[in-house]
Fold each of these.
Amino acid sequence: MSLSKKIFNAGVVGAGGAGFPAHVKANSKVEFVLANGAECEPLIHKDYELMLRFTQEITKGLEHLIESTKAKRGFFGIKEKNVKAISAISQCLNGKTEITKLGDFYPSGDEFELVYEATGRLIPPAGIPLDVGCVVNNVETLYNIALAEKDIPVTKKFICVAGAVKKPSSFFVPVGTSFKDVIEFAGGTKAKEFGLFVGGVMMGHLTFNLDEVITKTTAGLIVLPIDHYLIRRKNQPEQNWHRIGKSACDQCSYCTELCPRYLLGYQVEPHKVMRSLGFTKTGAAVWNQMAELCCSCGLCTLYACPEDLYPKEACDKAKVEMREEGMKFIQKKEVKAHPIKEGRRVPLKQLIMKLKLQDYDVEAPFNSKSISVGKVRTPLQQHIGKPAQAIVNKGEKVEEGQLIGNIPDGELGANIHASITGKVKEVTERFISIES
């Protein structure tokens, strides 16, 4: 059986957040395969722990992918500061892969940035790594690929829980576990009232709902007190973001000047997108297009803007409006990295200080103990593409690793497996609940 088929059967998706079905990449033919171990979200340290503890599985997954794609060579992107991880990975690499050492800046884990650093190639505007002969996978995805090769499906997610918790740590948890159970496993919170950033403070979303669950793409949970600067910024109606921007943006262009994609040579100019909020007569028809190439890293909103406005959210709004209007921006100018790009990188430590997170910037060591959960609620849509279709019924007994949701032939998606042994308590179009 091909590696691509095994990956599909195992339900492997991009574990770094995007959730793209990994079997598609394994079936492509490329020159280079890149492992992304950059991990640049503030306070998230799970990939670092994975690289230290499961080095052989990660490098084996990379080797399988290089072989499957007929790639000439591989590149393994790791931050230069992570000396122990570089040493561990280097000892397990074969002659086809070299380490690409990355700076400790945000967002060094952006795949456009990683491809450029490793190969010197610039992905076309609105393109994908495949357009320049590359495939990029997060290190946890590679770990799951190594398991898939042994016919072991994805039933657990490796996450980092940090911030205002008593035991910041990284550990495996069954897919579908509630945030409440996860936080309790990390010792509980230090704050009586708190909010959760799911996936990170920069690109994740804010929630106060402890009944939400871990999916195949959840990188971690950042717990912060209810009165923290970031909670206050994020926890307000969307219309407020745009109303404030409309009234206060003075077009200083700092958001554009520090935009990582702009510095790589892409025509994304958040300060011009801000004009589409309505403080110019021209409006959305002209300025929305500047949002097309935004990667939503959040640096403009949470670091660059001196007035604490919301350029990233304006770009998000513009992209929705463009899709609704059927508009597509085509960059005509050549993609060429800005000559001052290196000098405008944002050090992670500096970003953490700006975000008022320095009190929480601690290690999140690996916890090898198994979390015990009595129930899981497993979403059928944890990936890009079509949701899986339930193939089990209420009252049915299932074993951990059993297929419970599959993808129709010819559709893009990923299989879903039971993450615990137990009885099916509920089946809907959106999820399957299992109790042990």
Amino acid sequence: MSNRAAPRLSKWPFLLADAALMGVAWLIFWQCPAPMTVWDTFFCAGSVAFGAALCVTPFLLEYRAAMKLTEADRLANAVLQIENLEILGRQITQATAGWQTAHEHATKTVDAAREIAQALTTEARAFGEFLKKANDTEKNHLRLEVDKLRRAENDWLQILVRILDHVFALYQAALHSGEANLIQQIAQFQNTCRDIARRVGLVPFVVIPGERYDPKVHQLADASLVPGAEARVAETIATGYSYQGQLVRPVLVTLQADDVPEMAPSDAGIPSAPADARPETSR
């Protein structure tokens, strides 16, 4: 609200005129004989009334000027408030436009993020399928390699068993020759070969003559014969082998003469297995 002061009106002319009229009324009242006539009373009362009106007039004029000034200030404040409202309306309009723009950008960002998420999901699914296929391919490849290694292991194991069998046959031939030097050399050669075989897990073993027959690790040349519970081993015909703790081939033996069982009539036509039968390796 404005602090402007209302304009001041000089009151002394009005007061002077009021005093003059009061003096005129007093003069009329003092000069007129009693009783006063109608005209004297009229002029006396008129002078008093006109003087009173002149005395009040400056105050009324100041009051009206103050009221007009107050109304002008109120109108100016109203115009200022209207301008502020217009500014506020423009700011609201600008804020609404900015919010709409931000909303559009946020919508675009959400859509882009959704597309990126879908693309990532698709890529992750494709990558997972690729890894699965690669894993299956690798498993198949490794399975084939393992099968190859097992076949190769079985092959070289059979080869090694045959070599040791031939070495054992040489040792048996040296024993039958009766030459001590030859027996010693072949025995050293056989022990060296067996030590080499033990390094890869192949352990050859023989039976001590007179040892009790054990069908789990012993085998007769004639599979149709069933030895008794107290049968004793007479001689080792072919060495037995175990590979990494598992029996590969039982040792082929003969029994002592007293423990050799008779062949059953139903089995008389079955030929006996050769001493150098091909060993069957297993894992």
Amino acid sequence: MDWRQGMNRAIEYIEENIAGNIHIETAARYAGCSKWEFYRIFSFVTHISLGEYIRKRKLALALRDLQSCDEKIIDIAVKYDYDSPAAFSRAFHQTYGVSPSLARKDGVQLAPYPRLIFTSYDKEHPAMKKPNNMEAYSQRGYYVKENAPVYFTKDIKKTCDWFQDILGWYGDIIMDDDGNVASYSCVFDYPGELIVSGLTPFRGIHLFKGEPIQGVVGFIMVQGVEKLHKLVKDNGWTQISDIEPQPWGANECRATTIDGSILRFFETT
């Protein structure tokens, strides 16, 4: 069983028990890991805590009940573990911007928080067919929060390998030119076997064949810049600056790539 299947089974268990008792140890067993590893991997991959996900899903199902049946609001509140209608109303309003009673009125359109589904990139992204190690990803210690630059390189395969070997990213060739030479690829900071439906943004880099830019090509927000810096050093790459505080409220380091281009990694403070 791979990580994707295990996480889907854990989510299925949570959904089946969303109005009852959810035992995190049981969910973790479905995922094939310990309770604490499950907490860590879930938040690392989805960028939301497990507790917040469960809370939002309870409110999503409460919304469904409000709009599909005549059950009393107090009974729906108790069903989804709220001690009082007032507490339920506050949480519901914070999430949907309206009260439970208003949500029940005809014609009110609200979008419930979706159930997570871990699926494959294979059909949409041919480059993402390699099996990847989710455990290594969860232990890497950093992830990209915002990113989408374009990167030019004379040797896409070699550059893809650099991103994998030095930064711990994932990628492969997507398109060859007429001479069977790589002309386009994408590299991502997360494993290609995994996408969180509706939540995973594009945090990759587009690689095109061309003359490398000898300067800054990416200004990348990360969570865990110190761990990124250590990883690069541990992987034997010395062309990375020290982490330095910036006057605009961030800690930043600069990595010079195999092409001589510069990636600026920063974490806000």
